[in-house]
Amino acid sequence: MYKCKLCGRYIEDLTEDLATRILEHLEKHEEYANCSDYKEYNTDALIEKFFIYIPNSCTISYDANNNPIVVISDVRFSNRNIDWTEIKEYLMEYIDSSYEVIETSDIIYIGSDFPKEIKGSADTIRLKGANIKAKANATQEIPVLLSFANNKRWQENLKTKHNTDAKYGWYRFTTRFALPVYLENGEIERFNIFRIEMLVRHASDDKLYLYDMVNIKKETSNPLEP
Ligand SMILES: [Zn+2]
To answer: What predicted TM-score, i.e. pTM, was given to this entire model?
Structure first.
């Protein structure tokens, strides 16, 4: 993916319309929009001028209905006991970054409350077995999971403790990912497919913030071939 040097936002490059999204993004910046010289630049030159390339550690696959699945190849958390303190620590690095949901163009920020919330939420605490491992491993690819999320829906906030940080309610997006299952010889036997809801709060500053990843479910259909 590409990180904008002007605002720090990430643009996912795993889709075909990268050039369009690069231009749409730059139009929002006066540095670009007010300088006619840049209109002569091609996409590669614009990327070099305004973006930093950050390699993706995952790939995107598509199921039979052409819906995207984020393939997480590194099963970093495979122990029975997941160390959520370690996860919380590395999620701190994401704080203040923001990612665009490709389908809706929503910009979703990672707020300072997210690492603590995902570590200790009721959703995380109730999970067991394959689902808790899958949720832990999904935290490695939050930018791409947000980029490819869809099925956006809204709920009013009913909890007074969230009157400010979710003043305008809650959104849920669904996103899907695949985790490899390894044979004893280290080869991949198959992929398990999961879906998870990205729970997003619409705060009083009118920005969207990722709050938790909830209601993970393993899909029984649509197996991916290794
Ligand atoms: Zn920017």
So the answer is: 0.87
Ligand 1 midpoint to CA 105 (Å): 14
Centre of ligand 1 to C-alpha 19, Å, is 14
Domain co-membership, 43 together with 119? no
Contact 182, 189 (CB under 8 A): yes
Question: Could you report the per-residue pLDDT of 173-183, keeping only the tens digit for each?
Answer: 999 999 998 88
Same domain, 196 and 118: yes
One domain, residues 173 and 136: yes
Is there a single domain that holds both residue 160 and residue 138? yes
Q: What separation in Å is there between the alpha carbon of 54 and the centre of ligand 1?
A: 15
| 209 plus 98 within the same structural domain | yes
